[in-house]
Amino acid sequence: MTRTLWDSTVGKKTVMAVSGIVMLLYLVAHMIGNLKIFFGPDEINHYARWLRTMGEPVLRYEWGLWILRVVLVTAVIAHGVCAYQLSRRDIKARPSKYVHSKPRASYATRTMRWGGVILALFVVWHILDLTTGTVHSGGYQHLHPYQNIIDTFSTWYGDVIYIVAVLAMGLHVQHGFWSAAQTLGAGSRTRDRVLKTVGNVLAALLTAGFISVPVGVMTGLVS
Amino acid sequence: MKLTLRVWRQKNADAEGAMSTYEVDGISKDMSFLEMLDTLNEELILKGEDPVAFDHDCREGICGACSLVINGDAHGPERTTTCQLHMRSFEDGDTIDIEPWRAAAFPVVKDLVVDRSAFDRIIQAGGYITAPTGAAPEAHSTPVPKADADYSFEHAECIGCGACVAACPNGAAMLFTSAKINHLNVLPQGAPERETRVLDMVAQMDEEGFGGCTLTGECATACPKGIPLFSITGMNKEWLRANRKVSR
Ligand code: HEM
Ligand code: SF4
Ligand code: FES
Question: Nearest CA of chain A to the CA of B171: how many Å?
Fold first, then answer.
């Protein structure tokens, strides 16, 4: 069964759908966590500490966070590898273009591949910026996300990189959520409007929620 | 009507092809698109040139033999087969681009004719039932719920033309394959091979070098028989179910 899953176009797409939904659920939680910045430094700094103590006393300090990190890295790699392999296959299956061609699919549909690449690059930058502090613009302080976030969004490039990535994420989710439902066999004619609406609302809420943070810093609401 | 045609000409599978321009005059709005091409071919034959090769058979929209990508649309601007497309869909003086189906799994044989035998091999992998044939059985002996009968019939309408593959940016055969699977898998007659059918047909589809689905929906827009995009969703569901049931 594992071989059929991995060898098949439908199977690889299933891996993409499941890993995509795992990442999507994480994004919802991540966005809610980020919004705590609007309630002051104590709120969000305390939340950062809780991320390390969650699961205690069953788990030890930071175990929960590490489990989450492993799950997410696995999801990103599985998703990216399948996206790459399927895209290679798709391009090979249609070697010659039509002389008379017209783009028809929606913008979100046509940008899944490049949008995905933008997201992958962003994830690397984002971790080096706010998790490890390697490329951080101010003096990075562990467990002080409030000040770290203000530092990042006080630079023009920090704002630009972040906002471009969030917009790419919104488009990706807009086509991705509905696609995943079809891949997993959950779509149908009667359920289509509900699925499309949930995907659109999810994409809009995630985009607005994530973008509100740099906008908050830029407008001085968070300082 | 007077028209300018730009037609893909290719001597054989190995030759380089290119678009060639022709003028045709005296085309009636009531002609079908294929009759318009017949007119062009008659003129080419009189001039001693090689006529344009294109596929056709029933010319009544039921066999799936005719193809052609017309101005970038598989089967042209109307939702029907090329043989059922009429020249009233065009204007006097139009320039019309005519190309073959494009997909790695559908190599060009000559001009506008492509080899669609990959579809036959997908059918051979499981697009049948193994009941012994003979005299037609008593219809009432196998009750089929109305909703299932409708679902099956909707998918049975697929004529295997390949427009879905031609329209798909990934050269995927998902719509065709899903139509054939759903047609049989929902019926009691198709039940004995329900799992092997979907697993084997999807495996053969991949084997033939068709691409994967990115849910752009261009296949369902091009399909002359209105096979819906949800057909692919149904196939995915059957495939996942079969993987759970069959351990191999
Ligand atoms: C590592 C970076 C990423 C790459 C390279 C990438 C690439 C892709 C590609 C190429 C597709 C298929 C598009 C299509 O079928 O038209 C896709 C689908 C999808 N992506 Fe991503 N993506 C990435 C990150 C993400 C993230 C962060 C999420 C979380 C929200 C996500 C969620 C989804 C979902 C739910 C699907 C639909 C799966 C399906 O079609 O069944 N992706 N992605
Ligand atoms: S699904 Fe539609 S477009 Fe594809 S082969 Fe069948 S009839 Fe033709
Ligand atoms: S020639 Fe038979 S469907 Fe067009």
Answer: 5
